[in-house]
Amino acid sequence: MRRMAVGFAGVLALAAPAFGFDTTKLGQEGSLASEDVAALLAKSPGLKALFESEAGKLGKTVDDIPCTGQRFPGSWVELGGARVAPYECAFGSRRLIIKADVRIVDAKGRSIETIDRKAMKRASDFQESRLTWSWVGD
Predict the structure, then answer these.
(1) pTM, whole model, 2 decimals?
(2) What pairing do the DSSP bridges indicate for beta strands 67-71 and 83-91?
(3) Where are the domains of the chain?
(4) Which residues contact 7 (CB under 8 A, 6 or more apart)?
(5) For strand 29-31 and strand 83-91, is the pairing parallel, antiparallel, or unpaired?
(6) Fewer CB in 10 Å around end: N or C, the chain?
(7) Above 90 in pLDDT, residue 2?
(8) pLDDT given at position 26
């Protein structure tokens, strides 16, 4: 019975879409333009409401809140310069950390799981899903 359970779990792992790309290994961070922040907030009504509320408490607009994200280095042929989760936004002494499951794909929609030269040439897009957020600081 145990063998069957392990075998079934292995099949599920192979069938499930890959959302495990560790973007923190990209090694660069970059600021987000206001349109990038707006696009990020559009992915989650709850996050957008929180963001606008917290900015308002500080007497600021969404555009006044500085955010950074992981940055694809120029060695990523199609993605160089693009920002990806995790993001960090500064609300005074508090920081909002926004995480997401990230999937990097090639032009045929195939997942790319590891960072190597081949991946940097093949990658054509990324997708973020399952946004989560938490506060750090006061």
Answers:
(1) 0.81
(2) antiparallel
(3) 18-137
(4) none
(5) unpaired
(6) N
(7) no
(8) 86
Q: What span, in angstroms and rounded, lies between the C-alpha atoms of 25 and 105? A: 17
Interval 62-98: pLDDT, tens: 999 999 999 999 999 999 999 999 999 999 999 999 9
Distance from the Cα of residue 11 to its chain's centroid: 27
CA distances from residue 89 to 41, 101, 137 in whole angstroms, order as listed? 12, 18, 12
Q: Is 21 exposed, middle or buried (0-12, 13-18, 19+ CB in 10 A)?
A: buried
**What number of other Cβ atoms are within 10 A of residue 51's Cβ?**
22
7: pLDDT strictly greater than 80: no
To which residue do tokens 């145990």 refer?
2
Phi, psi of 64 (to 5 degrees): -85, -10
CA dist., res. 71 & res. 84, Å (int):
6
Q: Is residue 66 within 8 Å of residue 90, measured between CB atoms?
A: yes
Query: Which residues share a beta bridge with 126?
Result: 104
Please give the pLDDT value at position 20: 65
